[in-house]
Q: What sequence folds into this?
């Protein structure tokens, strides 16, 4: 049984454009997969289909053998609980404290009524440990909007850790960060992947970053998988094929640096 | 003549016509011959207010009248701040929401807003009898119109990111509301509620005119019985109270921003 | 989770929740005190609800024939709003200039005028109307004056605030060619401020139409008098006609005025 399995997945938007076209992919435990492709190639749609933030039009997606496509209500929420997500714009509640943002990762484990009256001590400890793992525990009681972008993204990663997810989906997690914090956030993701064995799928714009961190690279073009293989096979020529043109300077993190 | 000048002349003519129509219909006479004298009396009363009315041991004084007025405003504001929330969520337009639905919500809110609070108070007096309670209910119902609209705008301007993040963690609808939506909109809600409270204090001072409680009742009584010094002290009391409330409420609103 | 165990001492202490708790207690006390003071209770409300239901039932269907009786007072109401707003707008112009920090040099002057404008806005128009009725007797004149006083406060405040944000460029250009103060205001300030000013006047007019509709309750003319008349005689179907008519007029005025204001700015 695969951890994640996409079978003949297609997504057609209401205006007729094809977001994903007959995708077949499987992911195993502990993989660190980077998805590359031009913007509009379907990277984000692919990621958001896995936890069903986007509905797919055809096919089936299974998480540990359970179909998330067919899941409803409580069952859907239970599957989502096992899949953490990190966003480009961090998606923190800016006015809430850092700790409260991390605790939001725990709500899937409790009844609605229980969460109204605060979290159990064990959850708070778990959240503080998660913050500690991304080296930001001392900020626990500060409002999230007081932190820098890189720190906010680490809080978002801590939220995923507190969620005790088996899968992390990261949608352009470093696109709004400067090169230095980009490295720190990617290092955090990689370390968590290695130490906890959490399967991680990351959308990235920079191909040098993809080569540096990934164990496997998936290339998308116009909603179709045009490359799927280990980093060693992802040569410059293959990247040019994925992009349909030679690699440009701004697609390298090094090149983006002034 | 050019088109632009034509339009200018047309607007000018319409404005002139409106004013002719307006002033043609106004009564020229009907001013009481005693007007000047009464005005002098009122000003005399304003500068020589009836200080003794500020506190009377057996009740029915200025302080208790103002206290009632504030109580009406507090309760009225509270009622509307609670009741307007469902209206606000109904009227807020969103990405996955039919426009007809939010449009209907907005229309209802604008209807409530247009309905004068003083007329609502007249209707509530018929229901629960004259007094401050009717006034508070009227303010509570009337304020839904404005607060609902402002709350809806706050919801529309909210960042959708946290909601998305909560959905992704497997949160239920209510948990999304509690952890992603409320923390974002609550400061704005509170700020608008305070602003509405400032307006409601003003409104509450007039409710007594029709018997819905507060300082308006003794004021209209003093006016009718020509106790100008008492009119003076009540007006001073209203001005001081309203200014003070604006100041305090404004301080808290700045802290919330 | 595995990994290094967290030393408890390194973690920050949670902030005290005392402030939130105190605020909550204060608000609850305030609400409880207010409810107690005005003798509010759910019991009274529930007992009153059937009355309210009867009232609403009697309001429908509205008595459309009564419409003919209230057309004239409604037109008077609009007249009052127009006259009051105009009068207020005229008086507001000099007051706005005197309250703007970039128009007069002395803080004493503009602070004094701001204070006066604030005072004017603390007194609700219905109270002003009640006072003016006491002075001038029943009729439209006290209503118009009450609306005018209220309008002065609002229009002058909005106008001086935009006066203070006007573009300094044309002002400096005029100064450099040696214009005097009056010329300055006429040729560089007025053209910038006129659209805003008219927009504020229209906005005040919208508010004044709503206000004028109830001034009759204190005898200051217009349709408001008919609320009391019909309610006093328990003719709720007639009251409903007035309410619906007023709603229609107010919404129409709002719509027209908003369209005009959009065109202006």
A:
């Amino acid at each position: 049984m695969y951890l994640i399995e996409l079978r003949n997945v297609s997504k057609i938007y209401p205006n007729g454009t094809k977001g994903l076209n007959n995708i077949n992919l499987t992911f195993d435990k502990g993989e660190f997969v980077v998805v590359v492709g031009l913007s509009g190639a379907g990277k984000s749609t692919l990621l958001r289909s896995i936890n069903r933030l986007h509905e797919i039009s055809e096919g089936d997606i299974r998480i540990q053998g359970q179909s998330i496509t067919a899941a409803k209500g409580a069952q859907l929420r239970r599957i989502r609980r096992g899949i953490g997500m990190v966003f480009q714009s961090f998606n923190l509640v800016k006015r809430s404290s850092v700790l409260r943002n991390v605790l939001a990762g725990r709500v899937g484990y409790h009844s609605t009524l229980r969460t109204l009256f605060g979290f159990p001590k064990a959850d708070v400890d778990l959240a503080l440990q998660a913050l500690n793992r991304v080296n930001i525990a001392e900020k626990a009681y500060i409002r999230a909007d007081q932190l820098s972008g890189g720190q906010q993204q680490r809080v978002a990663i801590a939220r995923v850790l507190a969620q005790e997810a088996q899968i992390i989906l990261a949608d352009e997690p470093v696109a709004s960060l400067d090169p230095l914090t980009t490295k720190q956030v990617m290092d955090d993701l990689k370390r968590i992947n290695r130490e906890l064995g959490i399967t991680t799928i990351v959308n990235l714009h920079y191909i040098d970053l993809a080569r540096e961190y990934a164990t496997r690279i998936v290339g998308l073009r116009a909603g179709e998988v045009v490359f799927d293989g280990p980093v060693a096979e992802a040569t410059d020529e293959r990247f040019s094929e994925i992009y349909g043109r030679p690699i440009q300077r701004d697609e390298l993190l090094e090149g983006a640096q002034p | 003549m050019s088109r632009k000048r034509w339009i200018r002349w047309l607007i000018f003519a319409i404005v002139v016509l409106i004013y002719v129509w307006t002033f043609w219909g106004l009564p020229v006479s009907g001013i009481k011959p005693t007007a000047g004298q009464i005005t002098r009396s009122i000003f005399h009363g304003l500068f020589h207010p009836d200080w003794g009315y500020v506190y009377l041991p057996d009740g029915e004084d200025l302080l208790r009248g103002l206290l009632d007025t504030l109580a009406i405003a507090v309760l009225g504001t509270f009622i509307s701040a609670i009741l307007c929330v469902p209206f606000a969520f109904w009227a807020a337009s969103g990405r996955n929401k039919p426009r007809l639905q939010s449009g209907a919500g907005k229309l209802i809110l604008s209807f409530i807003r247009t309905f004068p609070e003083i007329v609502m108070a007249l209707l509530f007096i018929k229901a629960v009898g004259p007094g401050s309670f009717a006034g508070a209910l009227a303010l509570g119902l009337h304020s839904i119109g404005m607060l609902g609209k402002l709350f809806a705008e706050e919801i529309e301007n909210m960042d959708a990111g946290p909601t998305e993040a909560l959905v992704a963690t497997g949160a239920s609808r209510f948990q999304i509301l509690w952890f992603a939506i409320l923390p974002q909109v609550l400061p704005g809600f509170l700020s608008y509620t305070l602003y509405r409270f400032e307006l409601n204090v003003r409104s509450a001072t007039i409710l007594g005119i029709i018997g819905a409680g507060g300082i308006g009742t003794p004021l209209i009584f003093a006016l009718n019985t020509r106790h100008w010094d008492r009119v003076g002290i009540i007006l001073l009391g209203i001005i001081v109270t309203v200014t003070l409330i604006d100041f305090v409420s404004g301080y808290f609103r700045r802290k919330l921003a | 989770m595995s990994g290094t165990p967290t030393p408890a001492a390194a973690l920050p202490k949670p902030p005290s929740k005392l402030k939130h708790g105190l605020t909550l207690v204060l608000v609850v006390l305030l609400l409880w005190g207010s409810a107690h003071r005005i003798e509010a209770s759910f019991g009274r409300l529930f007992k009153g609800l059937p009355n309210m239901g009867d009232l609403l039932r009697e309001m429908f269907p509205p008595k459309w024939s009564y419409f003919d009786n209230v057309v004239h007072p409604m037109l008077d109401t609009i007249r009052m709003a127009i006259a009051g707003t105009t009068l207020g707008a005229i008086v507001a112009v000099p007051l706005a200039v005197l309250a703007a920090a970039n128009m007069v040099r002395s803080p004493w002057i503009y602070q004094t005028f701001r204070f006066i404008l604030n005072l004017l806005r603390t007194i609700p128009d219905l109270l002003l109307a009640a006072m003016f009725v006491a002075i001038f007797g029943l009729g439209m004149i006290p209503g118009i004056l009450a609306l005018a006083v209220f309008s002065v406060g609002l229009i002058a405040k909005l106008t001086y605030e935009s006066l203070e944000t006007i573009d300094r460029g044309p002002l400096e250009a005029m100064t450099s060619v040696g214009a005097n103060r009056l010329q300055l205001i006429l040729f560089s300030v007025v053209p910038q401020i006129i659209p805003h000013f008219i927009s504020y006047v229209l906005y005040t007019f919208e508010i004044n139409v709503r206000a004028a509709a109830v001034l009759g309750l204190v005898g200051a003319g217009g349709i408001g008098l008919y609320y009391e008349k019909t309610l006093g005689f328990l003719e709720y179907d007639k009251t409903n006609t007035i309410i619906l008519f007023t709603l229609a007029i107010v919404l129409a005025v709002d719509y027209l005025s908003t369209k005009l204001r959009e065109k202006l700015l």
In short: Chain A touches chain B through 33 residues (CB under 8 Å). The first strand of chain A starts at residue 4 and ends at 12. Strands of chain A lie at 4-12, 18-27, 32-36, 58-63, 66-67, 83-86, 167-171, 199-203, 216-221, 224-230.
